[in-house]
Specification:
The structure is a homotetramer of 118-residue chains.
Chain A: H1 4-17, H2 26-44, H3 49-53, H4 59-83, H5 87-101, H6 104-107
Chain lengths: 118, 118, 118, 118
């Protein structure tokens, strides 16, 4: 898989080949995304912080986590495709806003919510 | 922003510059991802299916949805980076499994859960 | 089961009998709640609004939905118990705030977000 | 607030008084529940396990957590009311199944997923 555009194309073709486009409203895809994120959360719920850092050392847990990440990313890319949103652009816009909002000198070491940008 | 790798690099640098890496355990990042997906769900909760299809026609709603997608994607990329998972590979693996699992002739037009692959 | 207090007691005893209290930090229980809500969302993701209204007419779907609601409620009650929060009080407080915030005459028939209460 | 039944009645009256019942399909209420759980998760995402245990010691955090629990519980009760599900019964059924599924002697101290009940 080359890039997000190729993944979006293949997910669209997957839906078209099965005549499943009618399921793929933004509302339904947002729910599918939330359901998959719930499965990812469940993989981590009883782990300590330290265990979560080492989760990929266990081949079975690693395989489940990787599969859940694939499900989450697939629905996110399909949702963005249906909405006509460029995910890299959208994330870059937010990152740049956060770079202005959270001055490194002020927030070093400790997170607290910054006031919204003017 | 060129690709996922560049976004992952910039998100890592953002955390390092603020000494926030200690917050970015997989467990915490999964929670941050779930929190942002909750905000995305909230944008769609009272919309009908038809309204959700046209959500990007309203500039204010479009701006909020785009920002939430950026937040979700940012945390997903940061999480995958911390775990050492290639998101495109993980999604391709799942898509290929679903292509085998859901034969187009059998599942045309109507989704139901297929038995797991052997 | 008589009331929420009895359910909270039995869930606490269930954890104590298995020496699982160390898993039941608020952080972990919030994640378990989110995971179960994800499973509930997944039951509804491909249903139309109309199908969702009739979901309990199908005995198999009804049984799954009822089980997921039981899981969600169980973790919510356990979480509130661990935090020392009275769920009925907390919900009543929010309901009363919303009764003041959303004047029936102004908001009749159409929801839009009200400004926060002063 | 006396019990869940009274809360369900008052939430129904709240919706009726504003002619908002058309928003309250099971599908929409599940999304509203997921959105509120996302806000609850966000309160805990950067806390260590230990900080999460003491979260109610900070009056501002306690107030936010209590408000989010009230929102989550309100939507859960409204959803169960619309579906005709008794939350206490549903949770008791799941608890009894888990009491059979997780024998205390076998699972003492360490959780792992039990095989489903026959």
């Amino acid at each position: 898989m080359e890039d997000i555009g190729e993944l979006a194309d293949r997910l669209r073709e997957f839906a078209v080949a099965r005549e499943w486009e009618h399921y793929h409203t933004p509302k339904n895809l947002v729910m599918a995304l939330a359901g998959e994120v719930g499965e990812l959360v469940a993989e981590f719920q009883w782990l300590t912080a330290e265990e979560s850092v080492r989760v990929m050392d266990d081949p079975e847990a690693a395989s489940r986590v990787r599969a859940e990440l694939g499900d989450v990313f697939g629905y996110l890319v399909r949702l963005a495709d249906v909405l006509g949103v460029d995910l890299l652009d959208a994330a870059a816009t937010k990152l740049e806003a956060n770079e202005r909002r959270y001055d490194p000198a002020t927030y070093r070491g400790t997170f607290r919510k910054a006031p919204p940008l003017p």
